Structures are given as structure tokens and as C-alpha cells.
Amino acid sequence: MARDAFDAIPIDDPERLELGDRALGHRLEDALRQLCRKNGIPEGDGIEAMNVPLRKAGVYGVPQQQQITAWAAIRNKADHGRFSEYSLEEVRVMHLGVSGFVTSFLGA
Prior knowledge:
The protein has helices at about 5, 15-40, 45-55, 60-80, 90-105. The protein is mainly α.
């Protein structure tokens, strides 16, 4: 996803927050699929199904795996309408983190 596309994800408007966190989660899952393909790892069904094999293959370490798990938790809460269980600040941090992850690991 291009930098300007990340910038277009709504994370500053509480009324549209659910769109931002869900879009970030979808982008994260897409990035993990790309990393799996790039590294010859079977694509899993969901973030954690790809996160663990990517870490085990040495694509990234335990701290990155744990961060991805935390982002997945926010995405899952958004997908299930549990918006009161995370904050706008957590989504802002997720935005920066997922953007940086994609840039670091996929150069996009």
C-alpha cells in the first residue's frame, strides 16, 4: 500500500474509527500473505496462522511476532464491534506500526 494510501485511512475521526482499524487489520493480513509467498511459506487463514510460521522461519523475531499479535487483537475487536475495548490512541499507534512494518518488510 502506498504511503498516501496509509495516510487516507481514517484514524483521527472517532466516528470513522472502525473503518480505520479494520482497514489496518486487512492491510496487515495482506502484508503477511505477501511475506508468506515471498518466503515460500504456506498462506494461513488469518493473521496468527501466518504470524507464527513467519517467525519460526526467521523472517522476523519474537518481538515483531508479539506486536503483530497485539495488532490482530485490535483488528478482531473491531471486526466484532467491540469498539469500547480499545482506544483511538491504540489505533494511531497501530497505524504507525503497520505502516512501518509494511515498509520494512515489503518495501511498499
